[in-house]
Write a structure and sequence with these properties.
about 400 residues; alpha/beta; Rossmann fold; 2 domains; eight-stranded mixed beta sheet; 14 strands
Amino acid sequence: MHILIIHQAFASLDEPGGTRHYELARYLVKRGHRVTVIASPVSYITGNISSESDAETGGVRVLRARVYAAHHKSFFHRMLAFFSFMFSSLWIGLGVKGVDVVWGTSPPIFQGVTAWALAKIKDAKFLFEVRDLWPQFAIAVGVLRNYWLIRLSEWLERFLYRSADRIMVNSPGFVAHVETRSGRTVELIPNGADPAMFDPSNSGAEYRRAHHLEDKYVVMYAGAHGISNDLEVVLEAARLLADLPQVVIVLVGDGKEKHALMARAAAMSLANVSFLPPVPKAEIAEALAAADACIAILKPLEEYKTTYPNKVFDYMAAGRPVVLAIDGVIRDVVEAAGCGFFAQPGDAGALADAIRKLAGHPEQSREMGLAGRRYLEQNFSREKMADKLIALLEEMCRR
């Protein structure tokens, strides 16, 4: 098979960001399939130009489409970036020959339009992947408010669901929503991680030395610094932990809210908070190895109870216990694995208390992290997810 992936925020191992699609694409290539990706040259995490040239990495061919490069400025600028990619990726996709399946992924949902159009033009199958419930999440967080834009977005969502040959979701929390709007069964291929990329026995000593974290109990957040991530609550939790000088909270990553968060931390005189730059996925294992525990957090919205955040699975693969300030289906995973403590979303006191428990019992903390690693190996390894994806794609092509 030749699979064409339309994914504006596609990242390979030498870039910061989620690498689900790159890792799955490499498994497809190992099984003898061809994979072409059309992606933006602009990093979704940093907003910087990551690569303007076409390339082949790990056997995966990556074509870069020109985009409006200012998506971190505002919602309006983000929409311009999304629409520019929708049209430029369509133009580049027309030149890709011999395609059997076009794989569109949302968000942003507009690249789903490109995938649908290319599948029609090329008489190929259309696989539509739902990675979050857009526009529902955008409405819930308050970035999409205009009545007519909401109605148009909801119409587009239903159109793409019903036009796809198959629909794939990465969280069980999305299944009911998508089935209700599409009138069909969806395929669950959840987020996960590649255990081989992480070594739980690694102490991250080099990373600790480089960032002056020796002899500290390091609680790390690694990921986007955006509106949805509720990192103001983490700063307030750090204030409540000021009486524990050995505990330091390290925020690794970038995003629209990072400068405001750094200013807020300075105004609060938080000596126990450190902001560090994002790292490529190839280096995230070393960063997580330097952590004693890791934070996953989202705003306390009902909609976010449906998510399977990538970072939680990376934390589990690294063998680090999770401080989870997200309720819902991901809480079920962490509790089933016995790999962390739940803190009520939006509650800085609960987050601080969970960190206190882990910091006060380092041996128990370590065992919880290893339990998470074992649970991931059994249930959420990237290879197992790739096997399910390959079976789905081959079944689509047989039809």
